[in-house]
Amino acid sequence: MTMNKETPEGEFRRQEERRVERVKRALPVKLGRNIGLTRDISNSGIFFELQSSDGVGIPVSFSVELETPAGKMTLRCEGEIVRIEPRDESMGLAVKITNSVLLQA
Description:
By secondary structure, the protein is mostly beta strands. The chain has a single domain, classed as predicted glycosyltransferase like domains (Thrombin, subunit H), CATH 2.40.10. Strands 2-3-4-7-6-5 form a 6-stranded antiparallel barrel. The protein is globular. It starts with 7 loop residues before the first helix and ends with a strand. The N terminus is likely disordered.
């Protein structure tokens, strides 16, 4: 489902569609030459903010930097943009993760 405007009904429907809990974290994310921050992440999706974006339905490859007790890790992901939200100075992207691998940084 793609919605660009926030409405109580639309937010309720998106929450119902989520099958896994999202964790709110601000983590560095890199998509091509763009660097941004995550807002939340789960094993099936992620929301992050960047200065620019591609369109809905576009496949993307990105990486997220993680600090773990074992040291820095990089989560490399492939996914599809499912929603774009214009922000004050950036774009919010909701991405469905289709493939991911966790690597030592």
